[in-house]
Amino acid sequence: MAFQKLFPRLQAIVADVGRNVVRVGLTDDLGRLNHETVREYDPAAQSTISTAISAFARDVGLRSFPPRAAFAVSGVPRGETISITKSRWILSRAGLTAMFRAPPLIINDFAANAWAMSDPKCSGRMEPMTPTIVRPDLPGTYCILGLGSGLGVAIVSRDEYGLVNVVPTEGGHLGLMHGLSGADRILNKLQAGGTPVTAETLFSGLGLLSTYRAVCELRGQAPRCTSLAELLAPAMMTHDPAVLETLEFVGRGFWHFAGNMVMAYGAWDGLILTGSVAAALKSVLRRPDLAASFNVKGPWMRQLASTPKASISFKHAELEGAAVALLMNDRRQQAAEQLSVAARAA
Question: What is the pTM of this model?
């Protein structure tokens, strides 16, 4: 199937450059992701991002590239050359600018997740976790936590004019476990092994296994789970005492961390959870006795208790978010141009 020869003003190529795969898609006439166009490419088959983009163009029948492009990358999108974390992929701003005849927008992949959630027309399925519903389409400040192979933290701020700003952070590499009742024995065991004890090393996919092994050692039993899939299997989650203790600690610890993040960024308008591990731990994170740890003791305890929470799942959040970020970037550029014209005319 060949797509339009003459590109509408808002059509663009969007890409999600991860550690093990790159996903590429086209936006529609309104600038939002066309899910039917999404393709995946393996670094073993495509040696560079440019060759992956060229392969995509051939696969969908593009005769030339649209001048608009956005990339969501696993890593810090700074500098002329951007290396993808734990991957062979490298992005060159100059090379991509030459390919698209205009500078592409390059953002962090978890920031792209947050951008996707900021769009009232996103395809994500939001599930409330509190009686009060999270409304990221309304003005406010929202904290997004992504729990998967890592732990992403991003802040979405929407003003009264509908302008959105997304702030990607490295909050997942903070500890903030002080004050969590009964946590010291597990934290001390992990610290004794020389591992930095951060939210990511405790609660992410690989972190869960490390936490579980520490619990097994403290209980004096051999680990029965050797993979994350085994650890999160329903039978283990209900019958293995070490798994039960691990998940109770993770549930309390994760909510304690989430409460600290909401306070740190003033995200009183809502907390949204996403990611594969968050989905797998759905039954654990919804337990009221564990979720109560979100209400960190102190002067803001009542405010935390009234903060709405939700979870959300997407199929292509990074691609949707890259498209939304590009639209907002266009809007800001147009506003800046109008102000410049008005200033010259004054």
Answer: 0.89
